[in-house]
Amino acid sequence: MSIHDIQRTPDEHSRFAAYLDRLRHIAGTEEVDLVSGVLSDPDRTMAQSAVLRHLDRRASDLCPGPAYEEWAQAMTRATTDHPFLVQRLREWSLFRAVTLELPWQPDDLLASSNWLQLKTAAGTNTAALDVLAESGRTKRIRHTARVGLDSRRTGAALGP
């Protein structure tokens, strides 16, 4: 079934499922075209939701490796007219920097969404946990970061 066949399906739930299936099985070089095609669906909210799920899945898989940077740039170009998706890609890049202990700015983390702050608070970067324990946006984020810091301190105190 082509993307045009999917778009002619009247039920948005069926289109959503078909898009997710196509996105799950797409080859790397065709990914940008498929993402652009999905985003041309008349139901903008549904299309962005399908692409968001795809971006989250792929970013999670690619995040630790060197292929992430090129992929993120290509996806940013493909989603340029969709600010929420561009923001999510930007936040995945910040999450990658924090996780891999690459350079990052605390202000960028504090300005990020609850999604990224909570995801980072559940991680292991002590500097990020300190920032979020002190100034995370919500009580849940601050608490999660404090629990992470406490467990790192307890683990360090126990030693090998």
Task: Please outline the helices and strands.
Elements: H1 3-7, H2 12-24, H3 31-39, H4 44-62, H5 67-78, H6 83-99, H7 106-110, H8 114-121, H9 126-135, H10 139-158
Helix pairs in contact: 2-4, 4-6, 5-6, 8-10, 9-10
Number of strands: 0
Which percent bin holds the helix content? Answer: over 70%
Cα separation of the termini? 55 Å
- The helix/strand series, from N terminus to C terminus, equals HHHHHHHHHH
Biggest β-sheet, characterized?
none
Structural class: mainly alpha
Ranges where pLDDT stays below 50 over 5 or more residues in a row are none
What sort of overall outline do the alpha carbons produce when their principal axes are compared?
A: elongated
**Strand percentage, roughly?**
under 5%
What is the arithmetic mean of pLDDT? 92
Radius of gyration: 18 Å
Counted by DSSP, the helix tally is 10
Protein described:
This protein is mainly alpha-helical. The protein has helices at residues 3-7, 12-24, 31-39, 44-62, 67-78, 83-99, 106-110, 114-121, 126-135, 139-158. The longest helix has 20 residues, at 139-158. The termini are far apart. The mean pLDDT is 92.
